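Incident log entry.

Two folding requests arrived from the same account within the same minute. Monitoring flagged them as a possible duplicate submission, but the sequences differ. Recording both here for audit purposes.

Request one:
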Amino acid sequence: MEDFSTISVEEISKQDMLLIIKALEYTGEHTKIASFIELKNTIVKQLSLLADTTEEEFLKSLE
């Protein structure tokens, strides 16, 4: 197995990315583990910066 330290966003479909974000949000809300919400927020923030848009607009574009 190859060792890797990063995963390319280009390999993930919009639908899969939305599913990951929603799953992190759902899990964080239902387990009360802040790390899930923090990770979701970090992913959305970074991807919206890459897309040169607001976080809200980025999430709408995934839907």
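Request two (distinct sequence, not a duplicate):
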Amino acid sequence: MRRLWSVLVAVGLVATAAQAQDPAREWELPSKGRLHGSKAVIENQPCCGASRNARVIHPDTAALAKWAGVAARDGRTLMLKLADNRTLKLTDCDDQSGCEADDTRIHRMVDWWPQHRLYVVLVGLYEESVAYLVSERDGRTFVATAPPLLSPSGRQAVALVSNLMSGVDLEIFDFSRNPPTATKITTMPDCNGAGPNSFLRPIPVWTDETHVTFEGESPLPEDKPNTKQLLRVEDGKGQWQC
């Protein structure tokens, strides 16, 4: 999806579509030891004690310390507490553990959202990354483009990747629905000064409950730094405003 978006941006064809939900993107349970390509299993045993053997590359020590008792690590395995005294185990897979490059999955705890009963896990792939949203209720997991940023109330969120390798991938989440839904925003801001091949600045910031602005330095040096990039987000939908 991201590579396709990069091509569309390059040829200036992204202005016609507004937003789209992909029905194939679902909340899934582990099956035959796999979950969205990761090595994963749900075990009927309680979680979680203290982390151990946790010296891994890019450790998630701070998040695990903050949420001790609901998440822990045993070496390359991240363990998340589920309802009914069960545990979801996500095991890293990379060249050091015998996996091919295109099968790389490195799992790092980012956060736990008690109000939604969701875990946020950053998943490193070979050349990029995604994020898993994991339901504490049953272990069902959704793949987000990046760790989402919650609105002030926590009722909605945005997730963004914006770089020259992956292109622009922006989605909004509606947590008022069960299960939560995600919608891709497939247009770019078209305020005065925005070019047809512009990129979003890479840091989304909620200015209030319904508005997100984008800050930081654009991946394209020729982008005008003061071009307005303001997205209104409401009821699971997004609209650019000038």
